[in-house]
Design brief:
mainly alpha, Ferritin
Length: about 200
């Protein structure tokens, strides 16, 4: 009788453990909303867009700023990848420079490279535009989630983008170009540009 009871208890424990595993598997995919999922996938490819544009423009103009910031964008991509892994999402990345699953981002990449290939000044303007767009998109996706892990990643990326924007604008000044914001409000842009570089970022 005692052996029979042990067998039953063991069976119950195994079923409980199995149910827990199944629940964990479900949590990874159901614990985020569709908007949160869209945001993660979008930012994964948008960070790749930034990296790929900078790599391409570095090959064209050989300005160190493009190579340096491309390395930072790789770090940004990896940060978003950590969210993809955590929530068991399918990574949209095509492992080839200049190739994207998202048609809108593909078209944007093509347009930015075309503009940035015209002159060094245009290339730096493209860099500033990308960082502006990155900030605006990150702000949008932050407003659509209350999950602290996602917010922390996005806020860290946004710090990096603000630093990159400062760097591109500073380089443009060296060429005698005054950059005008394309996506941010004039007020927000000036607040960023007139504040010091931020520490504790991923790039």
């Amino acid at each position: 009788m005692r052996q029979f009871m042990i067998f039953i208890i063991t069976g119950i424990l195994l079923v409980s453990v199995g149910a827990g595993c199944i629940q964990d598997q479900k949590t990874s995919t159901t614990s985020i909303t569709e908007e949160e999922k869209q945001g993660i996938l979008w930012m994964r490819e948008e960070e790749k867009l930034a990296r790929d544009v900078y790599l391409t423009l570095y090959e064209k103009w050989r300005l160190p700023i493009f190579n340096n910031i491309a390395e930072s964008e790789q770090t940004h991509m990896e940060a978003v990848k950590s969210l993809i892994d955590k929530y068991a999402l399918e990574d949209p990345i095509i492992d080839e420079v200049g190739k994207f699953n998202n048609r809108e981002l593909q078209e944007l990449y093509n347009q930015l490279v075309e503009k940035g290939s015209k002159s060094v000044e245009d290339a730096l303007i493209v860099g500033a535009m990308i960082e502006e767009l990155d900030i605006v998109d990150l702000q949008k996706w932050i407003s659509k989630t209350d999950k602290q892990d996602i917010i922390e990643v996005y806020e860290n990326l946004m710090k990096g983008s603000r630093n990159h924007l400062r760097s591109f604008v500073s380089n443009l000044k060296n060429y005698g170009v005054t950059y005008e914001p394309q996506y941010l409000s004039k007020e927000e842009y000036e607040k960023i540009i007139n504040s010091p570089m931020e520490e504790g970022t991923s790039g």
